[in-house]
Amino acid sequence: MVSVNQLAVEFGGFSLFNDVSFLVNPKDKLGLAGKNGAGKSTLLKILAGIQSPTRGVVSIPKDIKIGYLPQHMKHDDTGTVWEEVEKAFGELKVLETEIEDLNLQLAERTDYESESYLDLIHKLTEKNDRLSLLGGGNYASDIEITLKGLGFERTDFERLTSEFSGGWRMRIQLAKILLQKPDVFLLDEPTNHLDIESIQWFEDFLKGYGGAVVLVSHDRAFLDNITKRTIEIQMGKIYDYKASYTEYLKLREERREQQLAAYRNQQKLIEDTEKFIERFRYQATKAVQVQSRIKQLEKIERIEVDEFDNSSLRIKFPPAPHSGSITIDGKGVSKSYGSLDVLKDVDYTIERGEKVAFIGRNGEGKTTMARMIMSEIDFTGSLKLGHQVKIGYFAQNQADLLDENLTILETIDHVAVGDIRLKIRDLLGAFMFSGEAVEKKVSVLSGGERTRLAMVKLLLEPVNLLVLDEPTNHLDIRSKELLKQAVKDFEGTVVVVSHDREFLDGLVDKVYEFRNKQMKEHLGGIYEFLERKKLESLRELEAQSSNKNAKVEKVDDAKKTASKLSYEERKEISRKHKKAQQLVEKCEEEVAAIELLIEELDEQMQDVANASDPDFVKKYQEVNASLEAKMQEWEDLHEELGNMEELKQQLD
């Protein structure tokens, strides 16, 4: 579907990519891996057509629609949330207007047999077919489902987009892309501005989506739950793994071990050959053998070992000063912004040594509570810190408090004490400040770089209560793992506001859920909490469904008359039920056969000659289209079978 052939990208004398080739197949769920600066975002921009490569070709069929979400974007929208998202249906709305115009023309005509009248009918049929393909005119429910899934309330729909923060406006753009239903999603760090509930909804959406997904993310759980293929970018080359991110890490380590073994064998061969040449270089009787060995040495293609950073750097917070048994004690805590209540009469206690997570949808009060603990904002009620509690606080605004006149190295050197001073450069390297970069002034750093530097600084300050507000947003996976281990080893108390499940897993032993102006305590880890929430959501859904059925005074006719049906009528229902079962089974066999054919074609498509052959590509697209049609047929048959089974159960 998307073919990348011999791609090269160069900046000055630096080569980012060199002769990179791969194929994105329909329905691929593909994650891009590699350290920061490896070129993941650049590759997405090239696939999106925003940036041109130095050399090479990216081939995308004209009828393939690309949906690209960059990591950072400029917002120029001026309407309401609903109006902005509704733009996703631009083509559909044009079609609706054209169909309405054609219907008006037909209503005014009486020359039913004329060629022009038949042309109008033909155009109308084409427009209606296209409208059906795009999902018809019932898109309002799709907009509502998507916006609510991404965390918006109904009351937000008519608010101006300019009233929302950058993170929420990013969600609006994401909603537009999802509703456009592109053939290929290109997503660059899409979860940075989503809370856990929105991420889970987004995961379910992508897992069930029929198109392809190419994803860059530092959220390991998100990658594992979605991707089935991982392309690693390493030193200008790519390595393609048919595996999720965690499985790819294992396979990558195996590859490196194989490379090391081959490298050692080759080095031994080279060493022995060079010794032979050196020993017999000046002996005439060995001249032929020496020249032969020299040529052999020149022809050897040197094996390169991937430069993986496997350093065993382990960072630690300074020992936590002793404090009282109660770290935070809140009684009747409330916070309002004007007439809007964010938190109301909240009671909670956090004891010394506990590691807790603040979880909930954005806007429910997580960061507000963190700022109240820091005494940064006013509130009503009582919020007391325990005896000798000293807080280390990390939030986005911490980056703004750094001294802009200092260099990166000086910033850390001023707070480092003890043995850690010997590892300052290693510590900075772990958070993506290496080499000459440590001499850069804070004043020239980007927002993300400042945030990472503030995190490094926090790691060096002796405290007994850590309050971390979204600490992983600008960290790569390795940096997050280092920070997570440091927080796990920390002897004091920890409060983490985060949506990163992988970071929280195994780190916290208690979860406070923020919802409906309250804090609800859940004992256990993050995945135990999420599992319980999923069950609760299902119960709520069932309860809502029952209430809805009670309100609607409508009784199924089949239930009414089931006891009155004759033997022949019951027999006819059983016959139809059996027929529906057979049709579903037959359709499933046909789907399996088409999927098997697609797997064979996928392998053939790896051949560049096939990927550039129009006839082969056309066949490939036709087979995939037939699978979609057959899946739709299966869904229809399955729904009919479900109805028949329900009716049959009522009769039994």
TrEMBL record:
Protein's UniProt keywords contain Repeat: yes
CDD domains: ABCF_EF-3
This protein's record includes keyword Repeat: yes
GO molecular function: ATP binding; ATP hydrolysis activity
Keyword line: ATP-binding, Coiled coil, Nucleotide-binding, Repeat
Superkingdom to which the source organism belongs: Bacteria
Residue ranges constituting the ABC transporter domain according to the UniProt record: 2-260, 328-541
Recorded coiled-coil stretches: 538-644
InterPro entries the record matches: AAA+_ATPase, ABC_tran_Xtn, ABC_transporter-like_ATP-bd, ABC_transporter-like_CS, ABCF_ATPase, P-loop_NTPase, Val-tRNA_synth_C_sf
Family stated for the protein in its record: Belongs to the ABC transporter superfamily. ABCF family. YbiT subfamily.
Protein name: Probable ATP-binding protein YbiT
Organism, scientific name: Plebeiibacterium sediminum
